[in-house]
Amino acid sequence: MNPETCHTGPVHLASILAVDDAAANLQVLAGMLKDRGYRVRPVPSGKLALLAARRDPPDLILLDINMPDMNGFAVCEQLKADDRLRAIPVIFISALTEPLDKIRAFSTGGVDYITKPFQMEELHARVETHLNLRRLQVELEYEIEQRTIALRKSQQQLAAILHTAADAIITIDAMGIIKSVNAATERMFGYTAAELIDQNITILMPSPYREEHDRYLDSYNVTGIKKIIGIGQEVVARRKNGSTFPVELAVSAVDHLKLFTGILRDITRRKELERDVLEITSREQRRIGQDLHDSVGQELTALNILAGDLAECIGTDDSNESKLVERIVRGLRRSQKELRTVMRGLLPVAVDTEGLMAALSDLADRIQREGKVTCTFDCPEPVTVADNLDATQVFLIAQEAVYNAAKHAWANHIRVSLKSDQFLVVHIRDDGVGMSTRPTENHSGLGLRIMRNRAAIIGAKLNIQPAEPTGTLVTCALLRGNHETKPD
Q1: Looking at residue 240, what DSSP letter applies?
Q2: Which three-class secondary structure state does DSSP give residue 14?
Q3: Are 214 and 202 in contact (CB under 8 A)?
């Protein structure tokens, strides 16, 4: 109810319904109240009083008891049975003075009892008091209603936030019993909310985390010592189908409610990336070690033998000295070249702004020199890249695509192109059998994941699609911005 609709006091012309079967009494009562500034509606019977109240509910009712068709007690009982009228204060005005009559008046819902004959000042004081009480009651009800609406809206907003969150959010009580879950929890674990509510949280934990959680909860309830609350940690969770997966868990305590809130983030993808990085690093280390062993190591062994021979020839065989020196010089040059090749793998793109063009051109030349496929590089206009990290990742994506085309797609021709407008774009097109976007029996898909991970690092778009008539087209597009500068 809006308090503005409840009018109290003479200024607001409070509406009073006066009920009495004696016309003289009713006339006197109505006249006295009107003189005090009230808006009075006099009615001569109980039935008419009910009709008038239902048609236009008053702010207060003055009700006689002894009336022929329906007495005041019956009228009050019907008023209190009506949801729209039960809150209207009823003051009985009667010549009955017996205590039982007064008790009955209050038991049927009356708020006050005035004995005839009455004094106008007393009547006015009591009327004004109950009108003010009614006004305060209406204001309080309105405030409660508004706060309830605001609370309900806030709860709906919070529920919407919780149920649209990407992370699983779970609340449990002090005994580890699940009290609420959000939609992400259902998606992450495969359970419905109904299946989880009132279950122990250990339903989502494999051993030994289940036993560790029980011990920790028992210890916390006894000692109050917080060991994991407020500290993020990585644990293993268990789905409904029994499979396990890594999650990042953060727990907080809602002390006044004796609840705990857990936020869980599935870090399966992150762990896969970490394993990929370790595998890439290990593979590169093995490759560099093998390259050094096969080229520089063997060359240095041969040079060591030649140096020994040269030492033996000095002063004894002048004719052979110059030949040995020449062979050592050639060997040193070959070693230097091999070292440069290895170093190119460690630092594929030069630090200067034109390093990407040079690195892609060199990549095409190296693949071409190997003789297994024809590889060309096309860059119609000079392209510069200011950020070496961006340039390096773009190059490594191109290199991986070229290696995949040569090794797995059995391509005969590979074309690498570089251009720049709004985007820095690298295309790698081949005429092979095509690249699968999913792991197969003979191909783990690691190279594809590597390319996607590198593109994600620099915010580039990677697109892999079939080429016409055969082969694959790999496109890496990086929005320019601060990533590159045009040459003057």
Answers
A1: T
A2: coil
A3: yes
Place of tokens 């030069």: 350
Is residue 103 classed as helix, strand or coil in its secondary structure?
A: helix
CB 16 within 8 A of CB 124: no
- What is the rounded CA–CA span in Å between residue 427 and residue 477? 9
Burial level of 196, CB count in 10 A (0-12/13-18/19+)?
buried
The β-bridge relationship of strands 90-94 and 60-63 is parallel
DSSP 52-63: HHHHS--SEEEE
Task: Match domain 349-479 to its CATH number in 3.40.960.10, 3.40.50.300, 3.30.565.10, 3.40.640.10.
Answer: 3.30.565.10
Burial class of residue 49, CB neighbours in 10 A (0-12, 13-18, 19+): buried
Query: Which CATH class for the 3-143 domain?
Result: alpha beta
Give the side-chain half-sphere CA count within 13 A for 442: 6
Give, as one character, the DSSP assignment of residue 200.
Answer: B
Distance CA 350, CA 360 (A): 11
Structure tokens, 345: 């793998």
Tokens of 34: 């009107």
In Å, what is the CA distance from 23 to each residue of 26, 67, 72, 286, 375?
5, 12, 16, 114, 115
Q: Which residue has the tokens 């998606």?
A: 187
Contact 419, 425 (CB under 8 A): yes
Q: Over its length of 488 residues, how does the chain's per-residue pLDDT go in tens digits?
A: 444 445 444 435 789 999 999 998 899 889 989 988 899 999 999 999 999 999 999 999 999 999 988 999 999 999 999 999 999 999 999 988 899 999 999 999 999 999 988 888 888 899 999 999 989 988 998 999 999 999 998 888 887 888 888 899 999 998 889 999 999 999 999 999 999 999 999 999 987 778 777 777 777 777 766 666 767 788 889 999 999 999 999 988 887 888 889 999 999 888 887 777 767 766 766 676 676 666 666 666 776 677 776 666 676 666 676 676 777 777 777 776 666 666 555 555 554 567 889 889 989 998 998 888 999 999 999 998 888 778 888 998 999 999 999 888 889 999 999 999 888 999 999 999 886 655 554 555 667 888 888 888 788 889 999 998 899 999 999 987 544 444 44
Counting DSSP H helices and E strands in the chain, the numbers are: 14, 15
Total number of residues shown for the chain? 488
Paired residues of 234 in beta bridges: 248
Residue found by looking up tokens 């892609």 in the block: 360
Rounded CA separation 33/444 (Å): 95
How many whole angstroms separate alpha carbon 65 and alpha carbon 59?
Answer: 20
> Coil, strand or helix: which one is 92?
strand
CATH fold for domain 165-266: Beta-Lactamase (3.30.450)
Q: What are phi and psi of 203, to 5 degrees?
A: -60, -20
